[in-house]
Design goal:
Layout (H helix, E strand, L loop, with lengths): L1 H21 L11 H64 L1 H72 L2 H16 L1
Length: about 190
């Protein structure tokens, strides 16, 4: 409806201006007539730009509408980014505020862990020392018994050797010789 009305107005203005255009408007100085010529130029200007406006109205509306939507979308994204950055800033500020507490907690946990580890190492060390001491005692006892046996065996050999030398010196070889030899042979076995 609006289109038909606009077209009718433009056509009416054009038809109204046609008789004026057909007249000869030469003035005294040879130039065109004054006010009618200016009026015709203004009408021509209005008609030209009115027609261009009518023809370009839809593309311009679509362009400005899409541009408006792009700007609105950009504003929404900017608002979302700002809200997100504000949330991140609040989180970081909260973490910074609790940083001393977290450091204290970490230090307390580290001290407790170090203390328990120190105790575990001491207990493990004591157990290792006790075990090594028991092994050393057992080894000493074993070596002592071995040396004791060897010393007894050596002493017994020395006693037997000494006794056999005394017996040989006291016994007459002719009479007691075979008896002493047999006795000494029995002892050495």
């Amino acid at each position: 409806m609006k289109k038909i009305f606009c077209i009718a107005v433009l056509l009416g203005l054009f038809l109204a201006a046609a008789p004026v255009l057909a007249q000869d408007h030469s003035g005294e100085n040879g130039h065109g007539g004054g006010s009618i010529d200016v009026l015709f130029r203004w009408f021509n200007f209005a008609l030209l730009f009115g027609g261009l406006g009518y023809l370009l109205r839809r593309p311009l509306i679509a362009f400005f509408k899409s541009r408006n939507e792009d700007i609105q979308g950009g504003l929404r994204k900017a608002e979302e980014a700002q809200a997100e950055s504000e949330n991140n800033l609040a989180y970081i500020e909260d973490r910074l505020a609790r940083l001393d507490e977290e450091i204290s907690e970490i230090q307390a946990k580290g001290s407790a862990l170090a203390s328990s580890e120190r105790e575990r190492i001491v207990v493990t060390g004591k157990l290792e020392v006790n075990r090594a001491m028991q092994q050393a005692r057992a080894e000493i006892e074993r070596l002592t018994k071995t040396f004791e046996r060897e010393i007894r065996a050596h002493v017994a050999d020395l006693i037997i050797e000494g006794a056999s030398k005394r017996l040989e010196a006291n016994i007459d070889k002719d009479r007691h010789g075979p008896l002493a030899t047999r006795f000494i042979g029995d002892i050495k076995l």
